[in-house]
Specification:
This protein is α+β, with helices and mostly antiparallel strands and 320 residues long. Helix content is 34%, strand content 26%. The chain has an eight-stranded antiparallel beta barrel. A two-stranded antiparallel ribbon has the order 1-6. The chain is globular.
């Protein structure tokens, strides 16, 4: 199905919200050289039609991990298996491959917990022919950090908040963050009405949360609206001594919206959005080739069944 690609102005305005989900129209106008009236009008259209959603990124519970699953399924059964997985809270991410016989999924794990899905339910399902499970060992990048490549470095820097104060989130802050969870651009007046707090208190608390980095936002939208028609997962085999270098290099690539090190022979998984198959070919042959990877298994995504509004990976950890 053809998808209408947004114009450059709208993409720049979306990219601005990727930098700061609570960005004001006045500040966007100043940095992007677009009239304040136009910024307000285009944001209202993009948000009002559901083209984009701006949500907050909550903290993850301690001890949360993830496994990447590749589930081979008999043809004709893939939709029913995907639907059964989609109702599970511990499976926040499900893709069907373009070939139509494989499900890619993310399964959340907890320290020390037995996983019945992996050990009992999937193996006992006759429609499932094989299950490959890889544990996420290290996160190099994830979807909320991905940015449209339509702003200059100066514009992105000017629009990105720089946390400057430490803050402890108390019960009042938590109630405010709950109100902002599904709409991070909710007005202070609306949050005040929902929480019963004075509007001045809400406005002050939101400012403090933003300055401390406790209020983090992300923009959800269909990448095809940006002309990125090809969605693919790359299962990459890298020499152990080069894994960290290759992972860090790919994490900052403009096409990459997820990059993790995993267990298994293919020890690096990279999720990409590119314009077409020619771009995907160049990425694999020139850029990955130049990094000296051993092998790449490229899997095209045919349909996204379930994708979370919140990140599913363990927190990004700095090297020691």
């Amino acid at each position: 199905m053809a998808v209408e690609v947004l114009d450059d102005r709208d993409l720049r305005l979306i990219a601005a919200l990727q930098c700061d989900g609570r960005l004001t129209a006045e500040r966007a106008s100043e940095v992007l050289d677009i009239s304040t009236r136009m910024v307000r009008r285009r944001w209202a259209e993009l948000l009002g039609t559901g083209t984009i959603r701006v949500t907050t990124i909550p903290d993850r519970p301690a001890g949360t991990g993830a496994m990447l699953l590749r589930i081979k399924v008999l043809r004709g059964k893939v939709d029913s298996i995907a639907a059964a997985l989609a109702v599970r809270d511990d499976v926040p991410f499900i893709d069907l491959t373009a070939a139509g016989d494989e499900i890619s999924a993310v399964m959340l794990t907890r320290d020390g917990a037995h996983n019945g899905l992996l050990h009992n339910q999937l193996p006992a399902t006759s429609a499932v022919t094989s299950v490959e499970a890889k544990t996420v060992l290290h996160v190099f990048s994830e979807a909320p950090a991905w940015r449209l490549g339509v702003l200059s470095h100066r514009e992105r820097t000017d629009l990105t908040p720089k946390p400057s104060a430490e803050s402890t989130v108390d019960g009042v802050d938590a109630s405010i963050l709950d109100c902002l969870a599904t709409d991070a651009r909710e007005s202070a007046a609306s949050v005040a009405a929902q929480t019963g707090l004075p509007e001045s208190t809400v406005r002050r608390r939101i400012g403090a949360l933003a300055r401390s980095g406790s209020l983090r936002t992300q923009v959800s939208f269909d990448p095809r609206r940006a002309g990125l028609a090809v969605d693919a997962n790359l299962w990459i085999q890298v020499e152990p001594s080069r894994l960290d270098h290759v992972g860090r290099t790919m994490a900052v690539h403009p096409a990459v919206h997820g990059c993790v090190a995993t267990t298994g022979q293919s020890n690096l998984q990279v999720a990409v959005w590119v314009r077409d198959l020619d771009d995907l070919y160049r990425l694999g042959t020139r850029e990955l080739g130049a990094l000296g990877v051993t092998a790449v298994d490229t899997v095209l995504v045919g349909r996204a069944v379930k994708r979370p509004e919140t990140p599913w990976l363990p927190p990004v950890r700095s090297p020691r």
